[in-house]
Amino acid sequence: MRAVVNLLLFALPFVFYVGWLHLKERNPWLKEHWDRRPVVWIGLCGLLLSGSYFLYHLAGQSRDPTAVYVPARVENGVFHPAELKPREAEPRR
Question: With a threshold of 0.85, does the pTM exceed it?
Fold first, then answer.
């Protein structure tokens, strides 16, 4: 799912550029509107968006070194994604 979101965030500036060209009553499918300068800037903006989303998810991961990995599973026809659960405290003796 994260890969799909990253791809969509990368493509978002290109979609906005096509929309902007359409609003300016220019044909967005002509090669003359896709020269190197706008494509490089749009690509950099897409990389910035997808990279920031990646860093957002990286920061949201569990930092607990004792966390237990629970793999993805299907229970009663419902998909449960993989997750890190905090280790339950063991009772003191």
Answer: no
